[in-house]
Specification:
The structure is a single chain. By secondary structure, the chain is of the alpha+beta class. The chain is built from three helices and six strands. The protein has a six-stranded antiparallel β-sheet. The longest helix is centred in the middle third of the chain and has 17 residues. The relative contact order is 0.20. The N terminus is likely disordered.
Length: 161
């Protein structure tokens, strides 16, 4: 369900950190892949979310490069948080995720995950996600680009969330 933030004075960054905190312990896959020691939320503004993740053995395939399933999970995560920057606590259900795998990263590499909410409507939201390898502290080669569409579950009139 989607719920608007009741405290408009809260910045998007603080809101996203609260949403992430609320997700922790409730999503085993995110808990497994995004530990506090390897993952940090870097910035958030309306429609945009950025985070960094240091890749570990939990993130790679048998060739020691980022696993495609991990990449798709990061797209789901970042797209949802980009939508949440619009003041939402919950961001609905994925309808479509399309990932284009362009480059790679391995254990010890840092990747930047950027989610952009292109449109957040009443029932659907459309996002774009980029995952970039960080080289010498700056964004380097693109690891993946993706589009992510979500159905926004709205409470019915008279129903609580």
């Amino acid at each position: 369900m989607s719920a608007e933030v009741t405290h408009p004075a809260v910045s998007e960054l603080e809101h996203i950190r609260r949403v992430w905190h609320g997700m922790q312990g409730n999503s085993p896959i995110y808990d497994f892949l995004l530990s506090d020691q390897d993952f940090s939320i870097e910035s958030a503004s309306k429609g945009n979310f950025r985070a960094r993740l240091t890749l570990s053995a939990n993130h790679v395939n048998s060739r020691k490069t980022i696993h495609g399933g991990v990449t798709a999970t990061l797209v789901d995560f970042a797209g949802g948080l980009a939508i949440a920057t619009h003041g939402m606590e919950k961001t609905g259900a994925s309808v479509d995720i399309h990932v284009t795998y362009i480059g790679t990263a391995g254990i010890g590499d840092i990747v930047e995950i950027e989610g952009i909410a292109n449109k957040v409507g009443r029932s659907m939201a459309f996002t774009t996600v980029k995952i970039t390898k960080i080289v010498e502290g700056k964004p380097g080669g693109l690891v993946a680009s993706a589009s992510h569409t979500k159905f926004l579950i709205q409470p019915r009139v008279g129903q609580s969330q």
